[in-house]
Amino acid sequence: MCDLTLDKLNIGEVGTVLKINTNSSIRRRFFDIGLVPNTLVKCVLKNSNMCAFLIRGAVIAIRNDDLKFISVKRVIK
Amino acid sequence: MKYIVTLSGNPNVGKSTVFNALTGLKQHTGNWTGKTVSSAVGKYIYENEEYELVDLPGTYSLISHSKEEEVARDFIIFNKNDVNVIVCDALCLERNLNLVLQILEITDNVVVVVNLLDEAKKNNVVINLDKLSDILGVCVVGTSARSGKGISLIQKAVKEVINKKNTGYKVKYEILESVIKEIENELEKYDLKNLNSRWLSLRLIENESSIIKSINEYLGFDVISKEINDLIIKSHHILLDNDITIKEIKDYFVSNIFKCSEEITKKVVKNNSKNYQEKTRKIDKILTNKITGIPLMLMLLFVVFWITLVGASYPSDLLFDLLFWLGDKIGNFLSFIHVPSVLIDILINGVYKVLAWVVAVMLPPMAIFFPLFTILEDLGYLPRIAFNLDHHFKRCNACGKQGLTMCMGFGCNAAGVTGARIIDSKRERLLAILTNNFVPCNGRFPIIISVITMFSIYTHSIFKGLILLIVILFGIGMTFIVSLVLSRTLLKGEPSSFILELPPYRKPQILKVIVRSIFDKTIKILLRAVMVAAPAGLIIFILSSISIDGTNLLNIISNFLDPFGKLIGLDGVILLSFILGFPANEIVIPIMIMCYMKSGYLMEINDLDVLKNLFVNNGWTLNTAICVIIFTLFHFPCSTTCLTIKKETGSFKWMIFSIVLPTLIGIVLCFLVTCIFKLV
User: What are the Cα distances from residue B243, in Å, to B26, B54, B236, B331, B653?
Assistant: First the structure.
């Protein structure tokens, strides 16, 4: 269950962030928008390159390449 | 006594709107065209006291990424202000509270403004402001800054903060509380110059060199004494006992603050809407869809350009007549007061006429295009363009937001260049600036369209439209190619991370948008054009009126340029027209006509058949037509754009580069096309 990353969530699915597996500058960007462990996120949009999530009340699109750094647990509603 | 008040907040929360409402200073709002690059400063008077308001760059947190965010951070940290006004978006209070709680760790002199209450109401989101104020321990004001509601309440709250001491909410770090207390006690031995000791303790535990360096510089001594160092090590041991490594300290701090924001939000926000932002999601499903997204975007942009081109032609003609009529009158008046006729000729036929020409052809399209684009911005559509196009730009190691600046470039390259401010990474911003000129702007479209109309083999308008589309796609393709080549050579680098906020759609304030964009962008860009057009008018006039052996200088120069022009499928006149058309590409064709007809003044021929005859009689072929189109697409940017590039990059070198690069590409392509024509 630990190899699920944020880019694999489908539209409408909800997940909880487990860990951010990078130390590059993107890590701080994630912190900025409130993407930290234990955050609940919902995937709302997707194209071949980016996914958009509802994160703490705002919809934010992030490239799939960057989403691969975020491991997540699917929440079944 | 003057009080200093800073305005901070996340990007896109209406900070600038609040700023404008407070100061009355008309500063442009909307992050998408790039604003608040350096902090704007304004003033207001409340109850006979003067307040200086500093608009800090939008920032998500006090962890700085860029120079601009560092400015915001240092301003707040080192207490250069009397009051911090923090603007929050009512629709995503939770994330905005993160910044509020971070600032509350530094100072209690805070006023929290919950903006966009009207939008929240529309979305059935109710916020209990009194409760929020109780929890945070500071003044909380609700506003709808776009309609001006609640602005005076901010002024009242600011005054209250100055006169009354608050005790703000402090985020608790359970496992660290005792050691924080110990460090604070130790710090009390020093003069901390107003720095909050709790905040300082947290930063010392966090142990990030850049902040500690700033702190030491501010204090004038090394704050990490032996005792404090021991305590820091102690705190790290406590964290390790709780499975938090030194690397993860920041995670722990940030998570903790967000946990608090989450809890506070749960207490004060009531979301009554069943399906949050349902309308926006529905629209997004169509506008960002894999299949329909890009075609719809192209259609929308096409409509914008079409309205601009068609809508501008009538007011342009009117303005043209008016300005030229005015010119005659001024000329008459000048001769009436006995101004020498040579001077009148220079002023009216030289400077004034070119000036009038540039204004008449540039003003109407800009006055239509900018408001239309700003309406798209106000609607919230622009980030979706970046979302749709990012895929393609990422392949060229560029940023999706470049797609946006490219779209703006179709309207006006200078605007596109300014728009590149929205791109965070410097490398990617340069890519966007340097390639913006590869898409034709409003000034160049008419050249391309009239040449296509005159020389298209099939006269059917669909065929012509198709050629125009190919030309545009060619420009876009070149944007990608050049971006890719540059990012492999001069501007090497990986695509930086890219985070794009997609705000909910909202109704644009059409009237305000029109006023704002006309005063803000149109006038500014027009003034820049006028500044260059006036001297250019003088030069054109001098060249056309000084003759040697019966030929005027204009023709002598064009004859000189002719061999080179012919080599690349053009001729001397065309080259000279592009050079003299530097202030505005709109005058390129009038200069051509002027040279071919050996006339002394700029001229226009509205009948395209007559124009075609003139061109053909002067040796134009299909080869020439194609090369003119290519050269229109790829040559040096107009003077306004050049000045803007210089301003935005802060470098003369990049401006020269942006002139040389497209010109070189244009020359090479024209040469190749001519070679092919010669072979066939």
Answer: 52, 42, 10, 85, 52
